Amino acid sequence: MVDRVLVAVEDTPAAMRAARLAVDLAQRTGASMRVVTVLQDGVLTAALTRSSTAPQVEERQQAALASVLGHVRGMAAAEGVPAQTCERLGEPGPEILAEARAWDADLIVVGRAARRGPAEAYADAVSAHVLELADVPVLVVP
Q1: H/E/C letters for each residue in 71-135?
Q2: Structure confidence by residue, pLDDT tens digits, 16-61
């Protein structure tokens, strides 16, 4: 039985599809839901422009992640599903797994990055990491 659904989100269409499916699943089964997003260390440097400082970029990125969490929490509330949210810092795959273990999730739901062609792997690096090392079932949403 699935009583605790952990869904990992970011600001991508695949993650939003995963969130919608997780909300639907939690609503249909009466499961609790936890929404996690991971701020990657080192990604901020790549996003810097001449007019932005590192703290400004970090503030904007944190605001965007908070907005994503709020959006998913709102989707869940609209369906009568209480959803906790959580922000973590580090590499997404290991952090998603750490949150799943800490929260004692029964199921992990993640979005799959878009494939660009038949030679591309089915799962992106984060999804593959979670699939390979999770202690609980993983649902990868295309």
Answers
A1: HHHHHHHHCCCCEEEEEEECCHHHHHHHHHHHHCCCEEEEECCCCCCCCCCCCCHHHHHHHHHCC
A2: 999 999 999 999 999 999 999 998 866 544 544 555 666 777 777 7
